[in-house]
């Protein structure tokens, strides 16, 4: 497998841009609420949503699934996990549960959902990547 065959799953730019826009809107609303002497409750709600959208923006930028030359690289805001191809025993998906891989040590690792890719297509991509086999 050459480096051009590396496949990366990321959230679409439009999705990330929408979250960014929402984050900007809530920040502007906070400034307007402060200038208008809004109630503490209204201000608290706006701050909560501004923090929530900032977290969602960071998570959407950081989340990716990379089918590398010989490793499955799963990155999220909470951390990164590299799984060698030879350590993966099974890939499965269920509606509502998403994609998971089982390692040879019988540990299930959940793959984060990526907007624009359904569970079936992502699991099929991982299976096809597994069938290509390890590097010689």
Would you mind describing this structure in some detail?
With 136 residues, this protein is α+β, with helices and mostly antiparallel strands. It folds into two domains: 12-62; 64-131, PH-domain like (Roll). The protein has helices spanning 13-35, 40-62, 119-131, and strands at 7-10, 64-67, 71-76, 79-84, 88-94, 98-103, 108-111. Helix 1 (13-35) packs antiparallel against helix 2.
Overall radius of gyration: 20 Å
Biggest sheet descriptor? 4 strands, antiparallel
User: How many separate structural domains?
Assistant: 2
User: How many DSSP H or I helices?
Assistant: 3
Name the helix and strand elements from N-terminus to C-terminus, one letter apiece: EHHEEEEEEH
Total count of strands:
7
- Which stretches are low in confidence, meaning pLDDT under 50 for 5 or more residues running? none
| Strand line-up across the major sheet | 1-2-3-4
What percent strand?
A: 25-35%
Shape summary: elongated
Percentage of helical residues?
A: 40-55%
Find the CATH topology of the largest domain: PH-domain like
Structural class, please? Answer: alpha+beta
In terms of quaternary structure, what is this?
A: single chain
Q: According to CATH, what is the class of the largest domain?
A: Mainly Beta
